[in-house]
Amino acid sequence: MNIYDLIGIFSVLFIGIMLVLLAIALTLGYIAIKKGLIFLPGIILWVLTVFYIPAKKISGIFTDDIVIDKICVEVMNKINEKYFKEIEYKDRTIFIPQCLRSVNCPAKINYYGLNCVSCDKCCIAKIKNKADELGYSLCIIPGSRFIPRILNKINPKAVLCVACPIELNEVMAMLSNKNMCVQGVTLLKDGCVETDVNIDELFHVMELSLK
Q: Are 186 and 70 in contact (CB under 8 A)?
């Protein structure tokens, strides 16, 4: 058996193992989304992170490939939920996208994001009121590039993010790599203008606590 035969065998074995792991992770992931039951969250997240592109391609054959990002977000939420509950509201920051605002929004954007003036033309004012009530620091940002500068200024112990599935997955993974406790809520629809979020779901996550 020559070197090329060995390379061929190892390649076939690697692809076979990858497909088996992906099949298991995708099956458990779909169960997590459909029924809210999450088994082996760490393994699911590791597999879908390492084989992210193949997972997206396989998922795209049967359904929308964004499902992979939704699964990753759901799993990260589950992994971090217990620790998130232990952190006081005053030590949490919530990042929401400026695309939630009305096209007639009078607020201006500064170095740290949008400065909401509570004009009640969109749901941001409600989120701001809830954040103030609980003690969260609220950041309304045009994009993820604002996050590092805000984290350097505020230095929270936990972060709640709202975004479209793809960006939310990326941001939560980035924050997790910084050993930060994260939770995420996906937007109800994608886009850059007048998007929407489930306020009840968002408020539920904001209120998570051991008390």
A: yes
What pTM did the predictor assign?
Answer: 0.84
Residues 6+ apart with CB under 8 A from 113: 98, 139, 140, 141, 142, 146, 150
Q: Is 54 helix (H, G, I), strand (E, B) or coil?
A: helix
- Burial tier of 91 (Cβ tally within 10 Å: 0-12, 13-18, 19+): middle
CB 47 within 8 A of CB 25: yes
How far apart, in whole angstroms, are the C-alpha atoms of residue 70 and residue 61?
16
Q: Which residue has the tokens 């998922």?
A: 59
Matching residue, tokens 């709202």: 162
Provide the residue range defining the domain that includes 15: 3-63
pLDDT digits (tens, 9 = 90+) for 133-191: 999 999 998 888 888 888 888 889 999 999 999 999 999 999 998 889 999 999 988 77
Q: Tell whether 167 and 114 lie within a shared domain.
A: yes
Q: Is residue 49 part of a domain?
A: yes
In DSSP terms, 184 is beta-bridged to 161
In a domain, 70, yes or no: no
The tokens of 69 are what?
């990002």
Extract the residue ranges of the chain whose pLDDT is less than 50: none
| Token pair recorded at residue 41 | 């969250």
For the chain, give me the number of helices (H) and strands (E)?
Answer: 8, 6
Task: Read off the tokens for 76.
Answer: 């990260």
